[in-house]
Amino acid sequence: RSCSFTGFSTVQSRKLAKSLSRSSVRSRMSLKPPKAYNSLQKGALIWDPKPLQVKKIFEALKKGLNEYLEAHQAELDYLSGRHKDTKRNSRLAFYYDLDKQIRSVERYIRKLEFHISKVEELYEAYCIQCRLRDGATNMKQAFSLSPSTKASRESLVELYKNVQECTEDMCFIEGALEVHLGEFHVKMKGLVGFARLCPGDQYEVFVRLGRQKWRLKGKIETDDSQTWDEEEKIFIPNLHEKFEIKVTELRGLATILVGVVTCDSINFFTTKPQAIIVDITELGTIKLRLEVLW
């Protein structure tokens, strides 16, 4: 299929190369320096964009933002209805307090609408760069199969630069999109182990999301309740990383690995708290309960 591109003339390929160069996202968008983004910190630039993963996160993020928008719009409609009723029948102080609430909700709705439009703008720019990179890659493969001439070699060099530039722009947009993912508030709800959990047992739970870590210790009390040294942790969502959860049992100076699991974060972009119950052991004899609020 790539051979069908060999009919392009050198002039046409150079025109495409110039078009690709002019389409650089950084020439059309003002992005912050790389150090502002999780995936671009400490010089660890990831030159491996993942369009399918970005698409899944974008769709989940947009759905969650629209859920928040609908909820606040419903709240605004309710307050507006009360506002009309209280204008005639209630005290002046209560009327002005209700008016203040309405203005606050309206401001939040405008922020949400701007947030959604910004996310859509970033993803649209990402898709454009992805298509340009695919086109340049196909042309590069086609030229590599054609007879080698000075003109074809020059075209290959130019196309290689364009592929690299589009890849770089995609990585920058991924970093910019991460800024708009919000926060995950993760709450510890305890272990469930039936006969496996006994009074006096001590456990350590280690949760990782990219470079973010949460290590907490807990103990099974005599009344079967559990005490943990921490109950909540805030994580910043990441486009490419999954939650990694490791549970170990503490026995004196020794530690025994109970189990390790990974958990995708795509389902957490929603208005309602999400309960997570994961099997720590292969047979499910010990489960970990968490709650995630976005």
TrEMBL record:
Signal peptide: none annotated. Residues 1-294 form the FAM65 N-terminal domain. Belongs to the RIPOR family. This is RIPR3 protein. The gene is Ripor3.
